Amino acid sequence: MKKMISMAAAVFTLVGAFSGMAFATPSTQIWIPSTDIQAYKTVHLNIDGYFRASGVGKATGDPTKRDPNMYDVGPTIGILPFEKIQMEVGFDYLTMATEPNDNRPFSGNFKLGTPEDSLFTYSPALAFGMYNIGKVAPGTTGGIANASLTASGQNILYFLAAKTLPVMGPLPSLGRVSAGYYNGAKSALIGPEGNSSNDGLLLSWDRTMTELTDKLWLGVDFMSGHNVDSSVNFGASWAFSKNVSVILGYDIWLEKAVAGNNTVTVQVDINWP
């Protein structure tokens, strides 16, 4: 794992030297990364909020306090001028008014991949990347104030493959499915008992509801494991214009002792040009 992180960090540094940019949130489904990559010179800005749906704190250890909401903002830019090999980079600023996270609010990301049918006929889209890149905080046991909730330093490496399902009857498509694997820092991705739980599966389904309108998109994704990121997420997006869309979703956190109560997410996505 250390060798993988070192290799990814080297790629991160090299791309930063050529692009002059910091690194950013990857293009995502609702919570997990997707195989989508920003087009060359396209700048994407995500503004995301995660608001606790109910209940007093599950992870704070104090039954009189609600778990904190989370807010994230960050740009992403496509940096490769090729059709078959694409790459995006950027950075994130995440805050939740807790420590140690707000001592390390910035994190980086990169993604390299290729779209469907680019390698051969019917080939899936492929993506490799890393997110929440930063200095690994010292691991501690359980609780929302611990290093498990420090996004920067999770250093999550992932690989994804995705394929749009074929036409079925009157439907233009059954949608797109994706599957992959992730592995992150052992001291950051821990379970409720303080044990390391730093790898798992990434799964998703998404579809633009073209039979109704091209503006409506539906999706669901899943991140396995027993850590702060493990979740099942549902969402719907509406495109208000060519460059602006909003996702409304619901996040079911599988390990509430470290992640807190479920959240309602509102995500604004803006592209230039």
What's the count of strands?
A: 12
What is the domain total for the residues? 1
| Percent helix range | under 10%
CATH first level: which class? Answer: Mainly Beta
Strand order across the largest sheet:
1-2-3-4-5-6-7-8-9-10-11-12
* Proportion of strand residues: 35-45%
User: Do you know the CATH architecture?
Assistant: Beta Barrel
Largest sheet geometry: 12 strands, antiparallel, barrel
| Overall geometry | globular
Q: What series of H and E elements makes up the topology?
A: HEEEEEEEEEEEHE
> What's the name of the CATH homologous superfamily?
monomeric porin ompg
Mean pLDDT: 84
Helical region count?
A: 2
First-to-last CA distance: 38 Å
- State the low-pLDDT regions, or none: 1-25, 139-149
Rg, Cα atoms, Å: 18 Å
Classify the secondary structure makeup into a structural class. mainly beta
Output the CATH topology: Porin
Describe the 3D structure.
The protein is mainly β and 273 residues long. It has a single domain (2-272), classed as Beta Barrel (Porin). 8% of the residues lie in helices and 41% in strands. It has helices spanning 2-19, 256-259, and strands at residues 43-52, 70-78, 86-95, 106-114, 125-133, 156-164, 176-183, 199-208, 216-223, 231-239, 244-253, 263-272. The protein has a twelve-stranded antiparallel barrel. The longest helix is centred in the first third of the chain and has 18 residues, at 2-19.
